Amino acid sequence: TIPGLVNVDFADVKAVMKDSGTAMLGVGVSSSKNRAEEAAEQATLAPLIGSSIQSATGVVYNITGGKDITLQEVNRVSQ
C-alpha cells in the first residue's frame, strides 16, 4: 500500500465494475507544461479499443505524480 490523498483498493474497483459490462483501461504520461491535461487526455482516448469513455457508467482513476504535483492539477483532471 502506498499512501496518498485518496487510496483506491480492489473493493473500489470491484464496486464500479460489478455487472457493468466491458472494461477499459487507459494510461497517460506527460512531463510538459500541461502535463496533467495531456496525461488525462491520453488515458481517455483508448485508440486500441475503439471505444469511447463517454459511454462509461462508472470510472475508477488513479493520479500518480512527483513531489511537484499540485492539487490544482489533480482537481483540473478530476473534473
TrEMBL record:
Residues 6-79 form the Tubulin/FtsZ 2-layer sandwich domain. Keywords: GTP-binding, Nucleotide-binding. One of its GO terms (molecular function) is GTPase activity. It comes from the Eukaryota. GO terms for biological process: cell division; chloroplast fission. InterPro entries: FtsZ/CetZ (IPR045061), FtsZ_C (IPR024757), Tub_FtsZ_C (IPR008280), Tubulin/FtsZ-like_C (IPR037103), Tubulin/FtsZ_2-layer-sand-dom (IPR018316). Gene3D superfamilies: Tubulin/FtsZ, C-terminal domain. Coiled coil: none annotated. One of its GO terms (cellular component) is cell division site. This is FTSZ1-1.
